[in-house]
Amino acid sequence: MPPNNTEGHPHGSFKPPRKLLLRSAGLLWRYKKTAIIAGGAAYCYYRVQQWKFNKEINNKIIDGTVLTWSITNGSIIETDTATSGYGPLGWILDSLIKPAHQIRMLDALVALEMAAVDPRVKSLIVRVHNGDDTDAKSMSTGLGIAQTQELRQALERFQQRKEEQHGSGKGKSYFYIDSFDDQQTYYLASAFSDIVVQPTGYLPLTGISATQMYFKDLADKLGIHMHVEARKDYKSVVAPFSQSSMPEKHRENMMDILESLNSTFIQDIASSRKATITANLQAADDDQPVTAAEVMRKALEEGPISAPYAEKLGLITAQDYIFDVKSIIGFRKLMSLSNYSKRRGEEHRASVTAVAAKDIGSAEFLNILKQDKSSEYKLVPTVGIVYLVGEIERHGTNSAERIAQHLLDAARDTSVDAIVLRIDSGGGDVIASDTIGAAVDYIQSNFYKPVVASYGNVSASGAYYASASCMRIFASPGTITGSIGVAAMRPIITSKLLDYIGTNVEELYVINNKSNSSFTEPQGGELERYRNLVDNIYEDFTKRVAKGRNYSNEDVEKVAQGRVFTGIQALSNGLVDEMGSFTRAIESAAEMGSMVLLFTKLNAAYRKALFDKRKLIQSLVAMGQLNSVDDFEKLIKDDSSEVEEKATNNASTSDDDLESDKKTVSDFSDKLDISSSDSEKTQKTFKADITRNIKLKEFPQQTGLSKWVFDSINKRGDTTDDDFGFSTTKSARISAQDAAKSVISAALRDEINALLSGDSLRTLEKSMEKGRSVRTESDNTRFK
């Protein structure tokens, strides 16, 4: 054996590895607590970095991204709601029961607009299904006609821009459903380039219809008499309780509406499906020329129709299953529309394009803006959004007082330049409607900020009353609006009902006035006063419409009398200004708001110069060169005053400059005639684009510590986009995390947004309970 000698070893004395390991183990054991803490910290750091990396990769919009959208009944809403009466706990519980993929209409429209101009987005795939609602009886979008039309417009623009970006025939969007349960869902699907239905599915196409029940005979049997006052012939909201069948005027009005809606329905689908319908007609080699509209009308007459026959007509593209739709994706990245909306919203806020002042006004305006170094000669209009959804009431979480306050908050916010009032309401209490309408008038006359109305599915009666004076009104072709009239209903319980239930009623009155009695028919002076009240309300309603829409007293009667219109009909008679979606209304408001923004800058510059003058005047008085501060008024009003000459000699800024600034502001104020509905008077040259040069701010706003906490929670974690059951990155853990984050995000976006989407039938129920109340509201007819 060689001697155990380590001399001459290059590394000095050599120790066997076994001893080093033992020694290291001993050190670890000796300092085990420190080692555990350090190891745990290192592991946590590693996991956090891994989580951040995965989140960045999963949330990054890359070239070739395919957007997915999972739609269920109720997953698309106008605005978030809140539970009242239970405090924060009730609000949180209400949030937790919302659908996991819920998205607001505005967010969906803006996301589609941004995706249309985003070259990284390749296509869009939509699937309609029941989601997690096991009690759902049908697959439906749950949208009204006007909301569907807004989405169709956005989808058509999406496909048009994709063809421009990727080439003709490549602007694809895909819609999948196993079978259509209502024709409203097919109306939305028809805007997609490809519609895929299971071979056993069908299309329930039958045309637009309406159903109305009448309860007079039932009320008579029960011994309840309905005393009704309606202004005027077409105001039939109370007819179901006072008539046994449909009044002739109401029938005439309803048929006009149905024909208008049905015509739009046919023309829209025929226009969207024209290519496939025409291709199928040519393949059939039919000698008789048939248009796409005629094919669609024939389908309505023969419906419901099976999927094979629908494909033969060109109404759908293919008969396949969801598994076959997956093959369209290939290796492309999937991203849900809701996640894309958040990501693009962040990008938009970070890179919103500022608008040069010269794009809005003249060189004079730009010269004045040069005095404001903070503006850097750039302006970006901000549009405030306020919602009026559901029944209009005087009390409650959705009270008119709250909505009016939201409008005033937006007006007082110095960062807001214009306001959009989004309405989806059939009306309600006349006093509440007047409160909101007065707030609109006050804002436009005192804050010089334009208020633009955007109508959803319905904006009738009290809702139209509240918005008639808006600077511009936008609606969709299928919007139900008008109903300019008043209806009051007072149920009278007769002796027949009392005898039937074996009850006797005795009423005692100190004053001979039985106006609040539910057992006495109004007569004599009481009946006259009751009718005068209704007449006065109708007169006030028509005057408000005449002033807001620039009608003569004779012209307003042609569109009043309680008559209801579709959006297209309302456009032709001047009740609305333009056919346009929610986003178009925002862009119009921004264009007018850009002028307000410029005016604010000019006015600020003028006030600053004025303030400098005020300090100068006070200094002159202190030095004895002026008699009193009151002479300041003379400096402004009297161009030739001796006081002005004294001030000019000591001023750092000449009065000529001040008067020039003052005249510029005055001229600008004349151009922005806020009291007129004539858009040409705004002299706008700025072209608003919601995807690049508009900021949005919603009212009510989130405030306080809870906003910070929930915003922090919402930013944590990665979001899966496995809306379709497609396996992309982590199919084993999909719905629970997404559901929680989506719910929190949807709920906390508007923390104190307490708008209720009430049912219009509640209004009638309350009228039954409070028979003496007078209401203005839309007809309760259900459109199918």
Automatic annotation (TrEMBL):
InterPro entries: ClpP/crotonase-like_dom_sf, Peptidase_S49, S49_SppA_67K_type_N, S49_SppA_C. GO terms for molecular function: serine-type peptidase activity. Residues 643-662 are annotated as: Disordered. GO terms for biological process: proteolysis. Keywords: Hydrolase, Protease, Serine protease. Residues 173-289, 449-591 form the Peptidase S49 domain. Belongs to the peptidase S49 family. This is Peptidase S49 domain-containing protein.
